[in-house]
Design goal:
The complex is a heterodimer of chains A (69) and B (465). With 69 residues, chain A is an all-alpha fold. Helices cover 57% and strands 0% of the residues of chain A. Chain B is mostly helical. Chain B has one domain: Amino acid/polyamine transporter I. Helices cover 75% and strands 0% of the residues of chain B. The chains are: A mainly alpha (69), B mainly alpha (465). Chains A and B meet through helix 1 and helix 2 of A and helix 1, helix 2, helix 7, helix 8 and helix 18 of B.
């Protein structure tokens, strides 16, 4: 949402700016949302779920492979 | 994220016009502003007609995501459920899964409306690329496997009418690409909504089986009979959950909410849109279970594809009913192939910081349209390769979706409770409790499935067989 190749008249530009919220403009997406630091508990939960996903995916693919063969 | 007044504030307009020279307005902005201008006009209109028009303008992403998730593998899962267990426990259970989907998807409406950012974008920027890439890998694998199954459903559904596989796949791709030709979010959304409405065909087809309404009512009132607890039952439970709650839905609805231009003022309409979508999709899903229920005990539904279900149903509902069932499967595959490939393209654009909107002309959104087209074409191509174990994909796709959901939901929970970005529309405590319950339920279902595979004898301790 960041390309600005096409040009519009002042009236069109005024219409867009008066109709959309500033954050809705494609150009506003150039500015990243500030990073937030994950707390210890949040990190632990995310890591636990990551391990869960990897382990369970292995189980699923193994079972499906057995079923297909 | 600034919420700001949407419009009508003269001083703000004046300020913005004076800085117009410093701002680059794109084609995408212009299209979105035209859509928002109609919403503004509708909001000023009085009476029931004005409200109805406003609702018509603002519905879309919620219905699309819910009917889109009634996709090929989902409808096959519901059909297998009915054909294996008949009516009973699974009727209210499927309604419960749609309630879970509603809880989760409503959050994406608030996130999109408050931040005007897509889901992948927010995860990457707020939590960094390390966690962002994990989410993208989950999404990428899930989306691609699901896309393959959509084309399998189209191929199988049209196979009922004798259409050769290559022609069926080509037709699906033509429909998918045609829907994008307008390069206008609004037009695309209305066209896809019209196509998605065909998903409701499962309701009249279910009525053609003349279901015993007392049995249906008994199922909802008592959740009985509960099938015997075994590996197959656990797989069907997980498959039915994966048929309603999946990661692509989070990414798609949030990005579509942003692309549509919805704001905080529109959240209650977005909520209604999502609830309506959930109700319609649940009705279609229940229809698929009811229609195949007469087959219970007569067939083994494990590896059935759409055409085989339709053929098995012919003695029950006649050729017309079976043909409608097969067409329903085709619609499910086609609409989901559109929404899922767009979900992948949105996520790619957000992460790669490339323009990503259905309002983009091809020239301004080359990467967006290329990813969308290539994903669909690659999945379609795979379906046509002879000898590939496609049943493997059908078997795992819904289960993979369930397993990938808990981490996705934790990110959703963290984002929606983030006061710095939510502009006052964070989740209240009760909504957090509901979301937490969904995470716990999905994780427990996944663990239960793992136990049923790794140590099936453990199910006997829980009363299983």
């Amino acid at each position: 949402m960041m390309s600005g190749k096409r040009e519009f008249s002042d009236a069109d530009t005024g219409f867009v700016l008066s109709t959309l919220e500033p954050d809705q403009l494609a150009e506003s997406k150039r500015v990243a949302v500030p990073r937030r630091v994950l707390r210890g508990g949040e990190l632990a939960l995310l890591w636990a779920l990551r391990v869960y996903v990897v382990f369970m995916m292995a189980v699923v693919f193994w079972q499906a492979w057995i079923a297909v063969r | 994220m600034s919420v700001g007044t949407q419009n009508g504030d003269k001083s703000r307009v004046a300020t913005q016009v004076t800085v117009a020279d410093a701002v680059v307005v794109t084609h995408e902005d212009m299209d979105r502003a035209q859509d928002r201008s109609r919403v503004r006009a509708a909001r000023m209109a009085h009476g029931l007609r004005g409200k109805a028009w406003l609702l018509w303008l603002l519905i879309g992403p919620g219905i699309l995501v819910m009917l889109g998730e009634n996709d090929g593998p989902s409808m096959l899962s519901y059909a297998a459920t009915g054909a294996t267990y008949g009516l009973g426990f699974f009727l209210p259970f499927v309604v419960l899964t749609f309630a879970m989907a509603l809880v989760v998807q409503e959050i994406t409406v608030r996130l999109g409306a408050a931040t005007h950012r897509g889901h992948a974008e927010l995860i990457f920027e707020r939590f960094g690329p390390f966690w962002g890439w994990f989410s993208m890998i989950d999404l990428g694998i899930g989306n691609f496997l699901t896309l393959i199954t959509e084309f399998i459903a189209v191929r199988a559904g049209l196979g009922f009418f004798g259409v050769p596989p290559w022609a069926a796949i080509l037709l699906a791709l033509v429909v998918l690409y045609s829907a994008l030709l307008s390069h206008r979010y609004w037009t695309w959304e209305r066209l896809t909504l019209a196509a998605a409405a065909f998903n409701l065909i499962f309701i009249p087809v279910a009525l053609m089986t003349h279901p015993h309404w007392s049995v249906v009512a008994h199922s909802f009132a008592t959740w009985q009979p509960v099938p015997a607890l075994n590996k197959n039952m656990v797989l069907i439970v997980l498959s039915d959950i994966g048929a309603t709650v999946t990661p692509w839905m989070l990414f798609f609805q949030q990005s579509a909410t942003v692309d549509k231009g919805m704001t905080v003022k529109d959240i209650h309409f977005g909520r209604f849109d999502t609830a309506l979508g959930a109700a319609l999709a649940a009705a279609a899903a229940l229809g698929a279970i009811v229609v195949t229920a007469p087959l219970a005990g007569h067939i083994s539904a494990g590896n059935f594809e759409a055409a085989q279900f339709a053929q098995a149903l012919e003695p029950v509902i006649g050729h017309v009913g079976a043909a409608l069932f097969a067409l329903g499967m085709v619609e499910a595959g086609v609409v989901a192939s559109i929404t899922i490939s767009i979900s992948s393209a949105y996520a790619f654009g957000e992460v790669a910081r490339k323009p990503h909107s259905l309002n983009l002309p091809v020239g301004e959104g080359k990467a967006f349209y290329a990813v969308l087209s290539l994903c669909a074409a690659a999945a379609a191509g795979i379906v046509l390769i002879p000898g590939l174990p496609l049943v493997f994909v059908v078997l795992v796709v819904n289960v993979v979706a369930v397993l990938a959901m808990p981490p996705a939901l934790v990110f959703l929970y963290l984002l929606v409770n983030d006061r710095e970005i939510m502009s006052g529309v964070e989740s209240p405590r009760w909504a957090n409790v509901l979301a937490g319950a969904v995470v716990a339920l999905l994780t427990a279902a996944g663990v239960f499935y793992g136990v049923s595979v790794v140590a099936p004898q453990a199910l006997t301790w829980l009363g299983g067989r």
